[in-house]
Design brief:
By secondary structure, the chain is mainly alpha-helical. Helices cover 69% and strands 0% of the residues. It has 15 helices and no strands. Helix 4 packs antiparallel against helix 5 (74-87) and helix 13 (239-255) runs parallel beside helix 15 (277-294). The longest helix has 19 residues, at 25-43. The radius of gyration is 22 Å and the shape is elongated. 46% of the residues are buried.
Length: 295
Amino acid sequence: RGGGGGGSAKLVTQRDINCLSDPDRNTRKRALEKIVKALGELAKDRANFTPSEAQEALTTLHSLLLKLFKDSAEKCRELAVTIIASFAPLCDDVGVFVDATVKAVRERIGDSPVLEESEEVRLALVSLTHQLVTLSPSSAKLCVADLCSITEKSCLDKFPDAKKVAADLAVLLSKTVREESREFSAAVCKALASNLSHQQYRTRVAALHGLGALVPCGDAKVFDDMMPFVARLNLDRAHQVREAVLHVAASWMVDMPPTVIPKLLPVLLHGVSDDLDAVRGTCVELVDKIGRAQA
């Protein structure tokens, strides 16, 4: 279909498609850059580019772009990810691309050892995964194991930005594949917990948000295993983290079986004696909110 009409013709010729598989990395790179430029121009005015044309064009390019996720040239890998991420919101039905794309992402960043050496490309890959699940939540059910593996390994990434996107992805999975992710929740929660001692407070807050959403998806052991890690953050040096702990404790008290309340109450009430007025105020608000919910 490569040189066909419609969306494909506006974006890519048969020669461009041939160039994406060329042995010369500069030829591949130029072909990718040409597509990125054409896509950028067309996307400025959606009247130029209907969702069905976007669907057609990505269908033409998709398998070639996934192969380029493994390209020897970092720039080609980055551009291939960029093109799929740019196409995704323009398509009629991005869901048809989710399973194969997520499997290709897992090959690069979702197994041990992680093959992708570039931290920027790793960030782009986990961000693309988050975007695809956001755009097509129902498609996530087709590849839960892959998604959970990507999330777990990205939580362990050395790059803080990748850790934060992975935590956001954990929150998203708790909403879209809550039941299906149960068997993987312990491993992902353990990876999230490893970031609760990260030097950047934003990374600690993101990990807390991830745990707050994902722990209720697991069994009682997941909760028991995570509690000590969460409780010690009552004493964190950053008030944003101390506030996040209170929100997590409060949400678990509402969302989980009543048997957890005696373990969570000391964590929540610890906020009453915090040094900062704002944290103390948050504690009082949350206690009041829980009281009304239980009434």
